[in-house]
Amino acid sequence: MTSEPTAILDPDDVRCPVALLLIDVINSLDFPNAEALLKHAMPMAERIQALKAQAKRHGVPVIYVNDNFGRWRSDFRSLIDDCLRPETLGRPIAERLRPDEDDYFVLKPMHSGFYLTPLEILLARLEAKTLILTGMATNICVFFTANDAHMRGYQIVAPSDCSAAESADDHQHTLAQLHKVMQADISPSTGIDFPRLLAGGKS
Question: How is the chain split among helix, strand and coil, in percent rounded to 5?
Answer without folding.
Answer: 45, 15, 40
